[in-house]
Amino acid sequence: MGLEDVWNLLITNKIKTVRFQFVDLYGTVRCKNIPVRHFREKATKGLNVLMGYLVLTPYGDFPEDTAYGEESGFGDVTCYPDFETFHLLPWLNDFAGVITTPLLENKKLNSCPREIAIKQLRELEEMGYSLLSAHEYEFTVINRATSKPILEDSNWASALRMLEAEEFFDVLAEDLPKMGIDIETIQGEHGPGQIEITYKPSTGIKAADIAVMFKNAVKEIAWKQGFSASFMSKPFKQWGPLSAHFNHSLWDQMENSVLFDDNDPNKLSKVAKHWIAGILHHARAISILMAPTSNCMLRYHDNPVVPSTVSWGMDNRTAALRVNRSGDRGIFFENRMGAACGNPYISMAATVAAGIDGIRRQLSLPPEVTGQKKDNMELIPSTQEEAMECFLKDDVICKAFGEDFIRSFTALWKMEQKSRCEALAKGIDEYEWARSYFFKYM
C-alpha cells in the first residue's frame, strides 16, 4: 500500500483526522492528530516529534540517561507513516490511524522496539523462514463510575456470565474487524472483570502491529462506554494474573510448515527442536523483556498455569513453552512467559532472537515436562533484579537488542524501581501503587 492508496481510503471513508502513532518502550500508543488536509505533506516530509516521547513512563515522566531526553536537549525525531499499518478507528468520528517509523538524522532509531523486531524477522527470512504469529491477550475491565468489574464473579468461560457485558462485547466484535483485527474468540477469564480475546495470526511484523492496535482499541472502546480496560499484569491481589502468550510458527518460502516431522514421536522437526531449545536456553534472559514491570513478577507467585520453570511440554500449560499440535500444518508454539502489559514488538523480537540462536547453534532439546514437575528444574527469575541481571549477562540477546535499547530500557527499569521503593517505604500497598502507576495507560 502506498500514499495514493491511503489517500483514496481517506476520501472513500470521509476521514477528517489521521493519527500519526508512535509506540514507546512499554508499548503505549502515543500520537499526534493530523487534519486530513495536511496528511500528504506530513506523510511525505515527516512529522517532528519529541524523541523523549519514545521512552516515557506510563504517566509521562522522563527517565534519566535514556539518551533521548535531557541528554539530547529534548530534541526531535521525524516520524514517517508506514502505510501498511493504516487502519480506521471506527469508535471515533471520522478518524483513522497509522503507525510511524521515527528517524533521527535520516537514520532509524536503534532503540525502537519495532525496528528491533523487524531486524530479527529479516535475519529469520535470510535463513529461509517466515514467522506466523499472534499475541493472545487477557485484560481487565472495570466500571469507572462504580469501580466494579464488568464481570462480577469468577466463573471461568460461563455463557451466562457473558451476558453481564453483552453490549461491550458487541461493540468489540463490530469495531475490531473494521480495523483489520479478525477476532476468533471472546471469553470471560477466571478473575472478575477479566476477558480474553483471540484473533487470527499474521505474517511478519504485521502481527505485532495488530497487537499494538488491538490493545489501544480495547482501551479506547472501553473508555467510550464508561469503562476502564487495562492490560496491567496483576491489578488486584485477589484476582488472577493477565498474560500475553506469544503464539507462533515457522514456515518456508513455499508456505510449508517447517516444524512437522512425521517420523518423530512428537512430530517435531529438527528445526522445531532447535527453536524450542533456543528459547529455553535464553528463557531467563528474555523473561524481563516478556514481563517488564515489577507488577509482572507477581504473576509467577503460586499460580499453576503461569510458568515458573524453564521447560517445554506437549499441550502443557504449566511449561514456559507449550507445543500445540494439530496435524502437519497445525503445529505452533506458545511462549507463555509474556505478561499482558509487555510491548508486543519486544516479546516478538526476544522470542525470535532466542529461537534463531537455537537453530544456528543447533542447540539440543532438553527432556519434555509432563504435569507440573519442578524438582531440580531451572527457574524463571522471580524478581526484576534477577531478571535484569540475566538479561544483561546474555550476549546473544543483548546483541540482538543493542546498546541504545539496553540503555533506555535500563533507565526505565531503574526509575520504576525507585518509584516503587519510595511508595513501599511510605507504607503504600504494592497493588495500590501499581494500579496508580500502570492501570490506566498499560
Automatic annotation (TrEMBL):
<feature type="domain" description="GS catalytic">
    <location>
        <begin position="113"/>
        <end position="442"/>
    </location>
</feature>
<comment type="subunit">
    <text>Dodecamer. Interacts with BFSP2 and VIM.</text>
</comment>
<comment type="similarity">
    <text>Belongs to the glutamine synthetase family.</text>
</comment>
<dbReference type="Pfam" id="PF00120">
    <property type="entry name" value="Gln-synt_C"/>
</dbReference>
<dbReference type="InterPro" id="IPR008146">
    <property type="entry name" value="Gln_synth_cat_dom"/>
</dbReference>
<dbReference type="GO" id="GO:0004356">
    <property type="term" value="F:glutamine synthetase activity"/>
</dbReference>
<dbReference type="InterPro" id="IPR036651">
    <property type="entry name" value="Gln_synt_N_sf"/>
</dbReference>
<dbReference type="GO" id="GO:0005737">
    <property type="term" value="C:cytoplasm"/>
</dbReference>
<protein>
    <recommendedName>
        <fullName>Lengsin</fullName>
    </recommendedName>
</protein>
<comment type="function">
    <text>May act as a component of the cytoskeleton or as a chaperone for the reorganization of intermediate filament proteins during terminal differentiation in the lens. Does not seem to have enzymatic activity.</text>
</comment>
<dbReference type="GO" id="GO:0006542">
    <property type="term" value="P:glutamine biosynthetic process"/>
</dbReference>
<dbReference type="InterPro" id="IPR014746">
    <property type="entry name" value="Gln_synth/guanido_kin_cat_dom"/>
</dbReference>
<dbReference type="GO" id="GO:0016020">
    <property type="term" value="C:membrane"/>
</dbReference>
